[in-house]
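fyi for ur records
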Amino acid sequence: MSQTLHFIDSSSLAFPPLNQALEDPNGLLALGGDLSVQRLYNAYSRGIFPWYSDGESIMWWSPNPRAIIPTSTIRINKTLKKILKRQSFHISINTCFEQVIELCADAPFRIDSTWIVSDMLDAYKALHQQGHAHSIEVWQDDKLVGGLYGVAINGYFSGESMFYKANNASKIALVALAELLQSINVQFIDCQMTNPFLEDMGCIEIDREVFIEYQTKAKQIKVPDDFWQPRYLTKMI
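which gave:
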């Protein structure tokens, strides 16, 4: 069956149906539009996310299968268990979102050029200011050594990127996020697409239709008013 790539009308926030996403490249749904807060919120509410390189048109994706980490079965290996037991890290929420996303963009482990281009940085900072994008930060000796950020719509959290400056710090951020979400009965973290790091943390792939069912339920979970307020978690991890 032939497939057609859709181009977004900048005057409309609408996206094509998810089942019209391409099979190759997997999940490419549309090109164009902008990165306004309204369009990004509309995209994430439907399980769509932007991903493109500098100099390219904005690309919108909905891959099949979809990668998730069940919060109750996140994998903690022996080394990480020992690190967590030492309780040498502090965790905070939304205390320095801009610093986290900028460090994610410049993470030294990235082999290719970053996809978190300047327009993306500005867009997610604006999304954060509107209360839809959030960061988890990992501190050691008062230094920011790891973290992640993503987009949340009620109980649905879509992880975007992470960084580390100390060994295992990004893993600690992911574990902290899983514990935080599990505290309000959120059952999964949306990882979008899998990779070896996420697989080591317990990431699995599910059919896109199943993912949308999960996402719909997660969006119905109302979070406490102070859930994402900037703060240090009382528990050291």
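The helical segments are 37-45, 78-86, 97-105, 118-129, 169-182, 196-200, 208-219. thats all i got for now
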